[in-house]
Amino acid sequence: MFLLPWLIGFFGLVLGPMISSLYLSFTRFDLMNPPRWIGLANYQNLFQDQRFWDSVQVTATFVMIAVPTQLIAALLVALLLNRSMKGIGIYRTVYYIPSLLGGSVAIALLWKNIFGIDGLVNQVLAFFNITGKGWVAHPDFALGTLIILATWQFGASMVIFLAGLKQIPSELYEAAAVDGANNIRKFFKITLPLLTPVLFFNLVIELIKSIQVFTSSYIISEGTGGPINSTLFYTLYLYQKGFSHFEMGYASAMAWILVMVLGTLTAFIFISSKYWVYYEDGGKS
User: What are the two backbone dihedrals, phi and then psi, of residue 86, each rounded to the nearest 5 degrees?
Assistant: First the structure.
């Protein structure tokens, strides 16, 4: 009985729609007329669609840059905050807030204004007699502004890294200091190996979240993925196909390709973890 609400939600709101979308991916469905079975045509057309490949390239570029930079930023800040100092709780809260706000429409609009032609970034550059650009309207820089926004949202990963740092026994550092190890050697020989389980968790979560990014691209590009498809994320193109062009069967095929890619990448990380994830007993996973 206690599990019943969750079971109803799982079968009614998760599993049921997933099965429906799998069926729709083999049909032509415009939301107005009954779906018509067309077999693998959606998948065949999908791989011949240049905008599909553009969205894959944009998303892959974003993930390969944003995920490492966000994790590095989160780890560096966690190391700085893993010490006793006056007001440390306030600092931790301030660094965590962007994770709560970063995915909102308001922050995306603010980001668009900050990097606009008359935005804060160009005002700062003008102070140094440097002529800025319309960063979000330039195909060479628009994606970079979204990467910066994603990196700025490192708070959740930072908190998890900080929790991991708290679990590392101080005796290990004391023993290393007796042996003459400096801070850099302590980091690479003690801190980083014992943080690999936390790094593994953060990597999986941030990878999935980055591949599914949508709101910032939609708001900054006004739903177009421009300029010149430079911010056409996979999920944004999926949305366009499903709810702008009413090609719901095509969009469902895209969704299932996304599920398979996410599953494959996650499985690869899990399988590879036995080679690089260490635990306190000195063994690998």
Answer: -65, 130
